[in-house]
Amino acid sequence: MGQVGSLGHGTMPRFAFQSVQLAIGTYRQPCQLLAARHFRPNSRPSSSNQVQPDGKRLNELIKIAKSSEDLFDVVSDHKDRLDAVHAAACLWRLSKLGSPLDHLVGRQPFLELLLLVDQHLTASVLGTRGLSNILVAIAHLAGRSGAGSSDCPQLQVLACRCAKEFSDPKKLLRANAHDVANSAWAAARLLTLCSSNAQRQQSHELTDLLLRLGQELERKQLVEAFTAQGLANVAWAYATAAGLPGGLLRGEQTKVKAEIQQQQMLQRLFHMVAEAAIPKLQPPVEFNPQEMFGARETANGKE
């Protein structure tokens, strides 16, 4: 009984066998931790060890995201490389994935995405297409909550900042019909989601944007560029906003004067919409009822 085990050509003395057992026991836990760290079967490879994707590839990663988790992975892995267009596209894509707002509120990846968009807004590098995409995305996200954007104050703040940026005269001059129609729809939709008239007054940037866009609709070339769907979105936006308590009135105006100005603006606007729509509806155009209250742009800005 002085020897145990078999090593092929001989046997191992008991004291040697016990020494091997002791060594295995001593180093088993560190080895297991090392293996778990470097060979986890379901872990994503570290982005630092991968070739960093270029801007085009980042657009593709955003576009093919099938869930909010996929999208948040893109933001987490590449947030230092996502430019303003990527940030707007991420928020747009998130709004199309259908995640309920209450499943997103309070989650760190969601807040990081909102912060990323806010940083690019602060830098004032977004064009009217990116700004309209952000407004529409926020309207879709807020619309999937029973309490609207009240569930997420950060969304309402972001929408107001975006509307203020869009209202810049230089940007308004560069806005095309597509961006004007979608931004008008989004601003009106967000106003309907405000829980009270007081909240609508606090979100005056949205009302300001509608008023400024209404002035831009005096441009004949812009009006002629609207699609039938765009005209429908514009008509819905102003009819809806004007029908809310307070309508499109501004606090610094006398009520009577403001009501007269609003009525005159709406008369001109609806006359313009009707006049521009007649040739576009021959032959009859089929409308998608869902799109009548939505927007048709995609992350890359194409209809």
UniProtKB/TrEMBL annotation:
This protein's name: Uncharacterized protein
